[in-house]
Amino acid sequence: MHGLMMNYPLTLAQILEHAHRIHGSKRVTTLLPDQTFHSYNYTALYERVQRLANAITQLGVIQPGDRVGTYASNTYQHLELYYAIPCIGAVLHPLNVRLTAVQLARIVREAEDKVIFVDGAFVGQFEELREKIECKQIVHFNPNSTHTGVAYEQLLSEAEPAYSWNIHDENWAMGLCYTSGTQGEPRGVLYTHRSMFLHTLAVNQADVFGLTEADVVMPLVPMFHAMAWGLPYASMFAGADIVLPSVKPVCLADLIAETGVTVAAGVPTVWAKVYPELSKRKQDISTLRRLIVGGEAMPPTLIEAYEKNLGVEICHAWGMTEMSPTGTFSKLRGTHQNLSDAEKWRVKAKQGRPIPGVELRLAAETSNGFTKLPWNGEAVGELQVRSPWTASRYYNIEPTTEHFTTDGWLRTGDIATIDVDGYMQIVDRAKALIRSGGESISSVALETSLLKHPSVLEAAVIGVPDEKWGERPLAVVALSQRIDEDISDDLKQHLSVEFPKFWIPDRFVVVDEIPKTSVGKSDKRAILGMFISTGNSDLP
């Protein structure tokens, strides 16, 4: 027997309409590149989104599912695009400005972007990409004197002021985000209106982001990075004020103090870098109550510094682009209140418990498939997940057992343990993924490219601890013939053709032979052990 409840599509237009009708006076403030502020309320944003919807349609985005790219930082215009594009039935495709033109050109070709909106802050580097793609419909906002193409504000001024949202199917695609390329090539993840709506409801639970209309939310995580962790939608649904830092604020403490930020989100490397600045301005940033931290693990010592010295709660989040992206969130339970501070910080350093709607399991691969492992804090296995907002396959790629199990779970590639209270902790990476400053670097892709160099016979890339970035790639190479001079600059130049600057290893160590496992593969554990045993000096 079916129930007798109303049944209509869950779409992002509902989030936009609710924000406009219920929270119209709440504000969106952007720190512009010239360090001045642009500020307006939700009502003004809503009116501009309607004009933008008409403008995008006039540009020729008229077929449901047309992809529209954005090449931008965290600005109010990008926020407008986050709503206008999916609400007309098109697909929002944020482009990662940190990738090279070669990588992005492949992504744009695969996505078949019909229009690309470009932030003036990146117009220079975008020109290199523009030469490699077929998309000629380019719109600029915050333009500088060198831009060419259509002007964003002119488009809005000429567009009709009203638009009627008309998404009939909640399973219609709304966004396309690409992974950072853990296996050498980024893979597309195609979100639906339903998946993002449900993700928004889940992260706004009290034990997750817990946002309210009294909050002032600042996403430092880029809007091109896994939909800014869903904060553009979660914040507006809750009615929170939003502060967008554009490209890079000169002084984060000033920005927090002037706008009254209560919740901020970003990778640990950002919070490690700005901690001295914030600690000197403790009284000025007294509104700041919580940091949402993701991308990589935050050291317990840094958690302690923020919570003990600044009174700012640290909440670890974990997820993947494939998960929209939030999967787990780390907050203390009532049973933890009697623990010592040191014990509490150890719990908080874990990646946390699955948020409502997410299922986790630990699995050990066997000849017959997978064996489920217990949640006892000791068993270590591959972390597998499923949820209503987790991908079932990649865009334009047939699903394989490498990425998805036969019973429909996503294989994360992470090796983890889960304790009896449900707190998950990543202990290793099955694919030797390197996490630097919250971004993913594929050791496999770097190794493949290094082996194309005529002087390189063998190559292995490992992640080594780094105080500033958390982890940095180190390349170990065996050469085809002896070379007396330092080959590092030559190898860096070789890699820079294909990869962005932050992917390039800081060091290249030449060895006679790379250590191997019993099956003849590079033994990365042994290499890392050699690196650590030499006190971070050159490998023998």
TrEMBL record:
Superkingdom of source: Eukaryota
Domain AMP-dependent synthetase/ligase: 35-395
Domain named AMP-binding enzyme C-terminal: residues: 446-521
UniProt xrefs under CDD domains: ttLC_FACS_AlkK_like (cd12119)
Keyword list, A-Z: Fatty acid metabolism, Ligase, Lipid metabolism
MF (Gene Ontology): ligase activity
Coiled coil: none
One example of a Gene Ontology biological process annotation: fatty acid metabolic process
Record-annotated membrane-spanning stretches: none
Pfam families: AMP-binding, AMP-binding_C
Similarity comment: Belongs to the ATP-dependent AMP-binding enzyme family.
Protein name in UniProt: Long-chain-fatty-acid--CoA ligase
